[in-house]
Amino acid sequence: MQSDRSYTCLLNLLRLALGRHVGAILPNLSPDEWREVYRLAAKHAVVALAWDGVEQLQQQNPEVLQSMPADLMGKWFADVHAIEAANIRMTKLAAKVQNILNDGGFDSCLLKGASLAQYYPKPEHRQSADIDLWVLPGSNQSLRLSVFRQQLLAFLHRQPQITVGEVVYHHIETMIDGTEVEFHITPTWLCNPWHNHRLQQLFCDSRNLTPELLELYTLLHAFRHIWHDGIALRHLLDYCLVCHKNRQQGIPAPAVLYRQLGLNTFAQAMDELVACCLHPQDDIEQISLRAMHILQALPERQVSGVVCRDYPQEHLFNLPWRAIHYLWRKRNNYL
Hints:
By secondary structure, this protein is an alpha+beta fold.
């Protein structure tokens, strides 16, 4: 019960942070419930965004915050400043890394946190732990992923300030100035080989994240977390804000791409989740079974077998993909 109340409170804080109308936030939360709100915010990587909601609550209904422990408020406030400082440092580092790539004849664009932060009311409060760059072949590099990966890897090994780590299908993990930087050969992937082939061709043909492709990529990023560490509220907010911006600009949802890649049912579930989490007046009983399964797993970011089985085409190829990828890494000495 305590967890349910705290999770609902967290959702209300996020609604306040995004400027969405909400009903009265849960009154009379105990100190332990406030600590649970903070724990869930950290688990979903929305600590700074939830703090924005706390600040809005301070203006609208300050008596609700009287039960928040003073030490928790101080820690929360300090964590927000640490997130802001980390984002500033990563922004500068990302620019430095892109200059290194440019000098080597590589094009690049930002992925994930750095590219999505602009959609938030306070970009510096979109939490991110690393830097992700999509590296694109220049005029003198191969367009084939397998060849281009070797060209990029050789270039990174020649840079004294870059420590190269694990190499996987879609990115090269590195450490630069104490920060993890992932150089993506392709933005992401799908386990289903036919869908993945279409996806990689789509990225290869475009070579940049248009608004439609960014919406697709944001959805795919959440989709990958079904099998990784569970979908977080941060993924839901990313998708919501990108879709909202695109609709405001008259850009329709990439429904054709969703159908071609087998993502139409997941896109529908995500749209229903956005409505449930950010528009509490919507009737939760009207959502689909797939959306309900994610909704049930969402508070603790569970990797649920039920959710995985909701997408059989991807689930069927998940283990074979991992096995093939393991053998590929072992053969190429990437372990």
